[in-house]
Every structure is written in C-alpha cells, then in structure tokens.
C-alpha cells in the first residue's frame, strides 16, 4: 500500500499530465497522430491491400514474374493517394471552419505530410 505522501505525489503528477490544453497544442498533437497513422503499411488495411494487388497486376500485365516489383510501385501509388486525400481533407476542414486556429496549424500539418513523404515513412512495415 503506497504511503499518503506517494499518493499525493501521484495525484499531483496526474493533474499535470492531462495532455495538451491549448488549441495550438491540440493541433500539434493531432498532427502527430496523422503522421503515425500514415506510417502504417497499406497491407494493414484489407481494402488498401486489395487495391495494391489489383494495381500491381495491372502494371505487370501478363508477366507474373515481375509481380513482386510491381507491388512496390503499386504500394507507393496507393500511399501517395492516401497523402493527397488527407491533404485535401485538411485544407477543406481549414476552409470550412471559421474558428480554425491559424494558417500555421495547416502549414504544420502539410509540412508533416511532406516530411513523411521525403523520409519514406509510409509503409515501412512489409
């Protein structure tokens, strides 16, 4: 059983550890979630996995010997589509929200998307 002093310290720490409180902090935190969500492989989503397979088969045509190479190309294409779709959603949300915090939040989110693409953070798990 923890002492009264330890319980008081735990409660004090818990009150300070409630996550972001400001609009800017919350926006930044949501960008982190976006970044990590995009890092998930397309093969983790059954629908995207099927889409990759269909596209790969269209790329190689009748030669199944190149299918393993075509899957990589198809996966990159599907990832690019995901990024573009999220980028469009972010811009649409910013335009539709009169109380949107600032253009800086949108720029930060778009910058994170660009960084993910540059650093090849998409579909790193195969």
Topology at a glance:
Blueprint: H1 4-16, H2 23-38, H3 46-60, H4 67-96, H5 103-118
The main sheet comes to: none
What level of helicity do the residues show? over 70%
How many beta-strand segments? Answer: 0
- Give the CA-based shape: elongated
Radius of gyration in whole Å, from Cα?
21 Å
Strand content: under 5%
Coarse structural class: mainly alpha
Mean pLDDT: 78
How many domains, in number, for the residues? 1
What ranges have pLDDT less than 50 throughout 5 or more consecutive residues?
A: none
Could you characterize what this model shows?
This protein is mainly alpha-helical. The chain has one domain (25-118). It has five helices and no strands. The chain has helices at residues 4-16, 23-38, 46-60, 67-96, 103-118. Helix 3 (46-60) packs across helix 4 (67-96). It starts with a helix and ends in an 8-residue tail after the last helix. The model has no long low-confidence stretch (mean pLDDT 78).
């Amino acid at each position: 059983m923890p002492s009264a002093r330890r319980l008081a310290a735990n409660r004090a720490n818990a009150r300070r550890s409630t996550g972001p409180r400001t609009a800017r902090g919350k926006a930044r935190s949501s960008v982190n979630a976006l970044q990590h969500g995009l890092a998930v492989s397309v093969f983790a989503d059954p629908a995207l996995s099927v889409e990759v397979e269909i596209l790969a088969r269209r790329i190689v045509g009748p030669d199944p010997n190149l299918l393993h190479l075509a899957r990589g190309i198809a996966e990159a294409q599907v990832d690019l589509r995901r990024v573009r779709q999220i980028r469009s959603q972010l811009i649409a949300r910013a335009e539709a929200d009169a109380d949107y915090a600032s253009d800086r939040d949108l720029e930060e989110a778009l910058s994170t998307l660009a960084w993910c693409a540059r650093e090849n953070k998409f579909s790193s798990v195969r």
